[in-house]
Amino acid sequence: MNQTAIFWPVIAQAVLTFIAYFVMYSRRMQAVKSGAADLRTFKRRNAEPEASETAANNILSQFELPVLFYVVCLSLYVTNGASYVALLLAWLFVASRYVHAYVHMTSNRLLYRRPIFIIGFVAVILMWLWFALHLLAVV
């Protein structure tokens, strides 16, 4: 397998972060134009309208669990451990993050967000386990 293939899900995850920034910016500008907020509202995020707040919170979540994803992908690449299993898990993680972000920035229903988050969480755990097994020369 081409080791650089592990970077396609990484790029897709980065694109999701850029999309979340765009959504937040767009929602904040809508709030300012409609009079629901002024620019000072966003200085401290203490009274941000819900629509832009959920987008801002989603951006924060893109720098939580995905950090572990980025590190394991880079680690797999550096140690020549990117495999089809790792790639499948990476795409599963990214797909779960896209669905999670969509739910988070639309309905924000925890009933849907929680199981989607767990799928991504387990995918990253399995990636780290796969990486450890690779270092032990088991896989």
TrEMBL record:
GO terms for cellular component: membrane. Keywords: Membrane, Transmembrane, Transmembrane helix. SUPFAM superfamilies: MAPEG domain-like. It is found in: Membrane. The chain crosses the membrane at residues 6-24, 67-95, 115-138. Its main location: membrane. This is MAPEG family protein. It comes from Oryzicola mucosus.
